[in-house]
Amino acid sequence: MKVVYMGTPDFAVCALESIIKAGHNVQAVVTQPDKAKGRSKALIPTPVKAKAMEYNIPVYQPEKLRDEENVKLLQDINPDIIVVAAYGQILPESILNIPKYGCINIHASLLPKYRGAAPIEWSIIDGENVTGVTTMYMEKGLDTGDMIEKAEVVIESNDTGLSLHDKLKVVGAELIISTMEKLENGTATRTKQKHEESCYASMLSKDMGSIDFTKDAVVIERLIRGLNPWPCAYTKIDGKGVKIFKAQVCPVSDGAKPGEIVEVTKKTFTIACGKDGLIIKNLQPEGKKPMDTVSYLNGNKITVGMIAGE
């Protein structure tokens, strides 16, 4: 197939490479503009741009995809298919109507659940046992188009936002090849979404990570995993900010206040929550690198009775 590929972050790299290796003709890659990073403010190419450059594929980075010259560019390429994975801009109808086989999205959830920007993280935070990838026809609505194929992935008890992301990007890269084959040979099906079963996975923000210890430990533990590596769950211990990357739910004695440190050993400490408690395993003090709790306790005097919290 003659392909235009649209994607931006690391999640979209695997599928681009998969399409190239399957022998499809990627005519162009469309990705978000480069962003300045660090003190030097040097422009860093998006992960998808970097991969496209390895294969000498022309890269376009429009500020606004819907501008007339960008629509004309895609019309002139006249691709058989536009494949989209976490691109970051809404495709206007003028572009949705260009390719023969349509604009096909690789979405990191089992639609109609978790439409929106952060389906991977929210599936962990909400306590789902299974998630996956859906390929779908794109239309004007947000992730509302007809579904083509799905592949399930079990969410393990130790999965983080990062580990689940890495599983799903591989599954998505395999699924899009299957979907493209079916589109080409006329066996692709269209399944309408049950809109009443949908839920919205809103964009992540830093303030989401503030830990409320009045909540149940199991809820907080899922938040910690879902927001790892970004934006991270955080709190204050002894007045100092810490990010928490890993914790384990455990029972605590009745009468402990939410946020109270109820046990300290040489290797760990335990914080009481609304129900049960959390044994802290891995964290990052302000201005330091991430560390295990043993290292943290070596440099910080933590005692029973201290209260953690903002």
How would you characterize this protein structure?
- The strands form 4 sheets. The chain has a 7-stranded mixed sheet with strand order 5-2-1-6-7-9-10.
- α1 (13-21) runs parallel beside α6 (161-185) and α5 (119-125) packs antiparallel against α7 (217-226).
- It has helices at residues 13-21, 47-54, 68-77, 93-96, 119-125, 161-185, 217-226, 293-299, and strands at 2-7, 25-30, 35-37, 42-44, 59-60, 81-85, 103-107, 115-116, 130-137, 147-154, 200-201, 233-237, 240-250, 261-264, 269-272, 277-285, 291-292.
- The chain has 310 residues and is of the alpha/beta class.
- It has 8 helices and 17 strands.
What is this structure's SSE topology?
Elements (H helix, E strand, L loop, with lengths): L1 E6 L5 H9 L3 E6 L4 E3 L4 E3 L2 H8 L4 E2 L7 H10 L3 E5 L7 H4 L6 E5 L7 E2 L2 H7 L4 E8 L9 E8 L6 H25 L14 E2 L15 H10 L6 E5 L2 E11 L10 E4 L4 E4 L4 E9 L5 E2 H7 L11
Parallel strand pairs: 1-2, 1-6, 2-5, 6-7, 8-11
Antiparallel strand pairs: 3-4, 7-9, 9-10, 12-13, 13-16, 14-15, 15-16, 16-17
Helix pairs in contact: 1-6, 5-7
